[in-house]
Amino acid sequence: MSSDHACHMPAAAVDATWIKSGRSNPNGECVEMARLPDGKVAVRNSRYPDGPALIFPREAVAALVRAIRGGELEDLVL
Question: Is residue 2 part of a domain?
Fold first, then answer.
């Protein structure tokens, strides 16, 4: 995957350790992320661990985290 754009693949094909926030709810409706060897980040729904995984450049995930921390996305949850 040499693209700088998001793509997808079966989550079962991701050979990485999946992690989720300690603040996740216990119902299994969480986002899990995995750091890939090529520096990209995979994202999947924990409820469907064998479903699709979205693959993003690390810089895109870092920008999302900065936006969340900075309150830039508050309008999405109001």
Answer: no
In the chain, the number of structural domains is 1
Q: Would you tell me how many other CB atoms lie within 10 Å of the CB of residue 10?
A: 11
Q: Within a 10 A sphere around the Cβ of 40, how many other Cβ atoms?
A: 21
Q: What percent of the chain clears pLDDT 70, i.e. is strictly above it?
A: 91
Q: What is the spatial distance between Cα 24 and Cα 29, in angstroms, rounded to a whole number?
A: 8
Evaluate whether 4 touches 10 at the Cβ level (below 8 Å). Answer: no
Enclosing domain of residue 13: 7-76
- Flag whether the pTM goes above 0.70: yes
Please tell me whether residue 76 adopts helix, strand or coil conformation.
helix
Q: Looking at per-residue confidence, does 70 or 1 come out higher? A: 70
